[in-house]
Design goal:
Helix content is 80%, strand content 0%. By secondary structure, the chain is mainly α. It has one domain.
Length: 81
């Protein structure tokens, strides 16, 4: 597991550069920060079965974070300004 994490770490920087060049720094930063938060949450839900431990407010927050990611990516212009 540690080797997988170490192997994926450089991809984060490449992905940030790619997203930054296509969406702009402000959107890239907000997407990256949101994905950093939502990633471990989804791992806990999918792989550890922790969905039943979340309250309705926490689930609403997760849904809003995913909606924010969708809105940032769907309604962004094709070229960074």
């Amino acid at each position: 597991m540690l080797l997988a994490i170490l192997g994926l770490s450089p991809l984060v920087f490449l992905a940030f550069g790619y997203v930054g060049s296509h969406f702009g720094l402000a959107k890239a930063s907000s997407l990256t920060n949101t994905l950093v938060v939502i990633g471990p949450i989804l791992v806990g839900i999918i792989f550890r079965g922790e969905l039943r431990q979340l309250s309705a407010v926490e689930l609403a927050g997760i849904v809003l974070a995913l909606a924010g990611i969708a809105l940032l990516t769907i309604f962004s212009p094709r070229e960074a300004s």
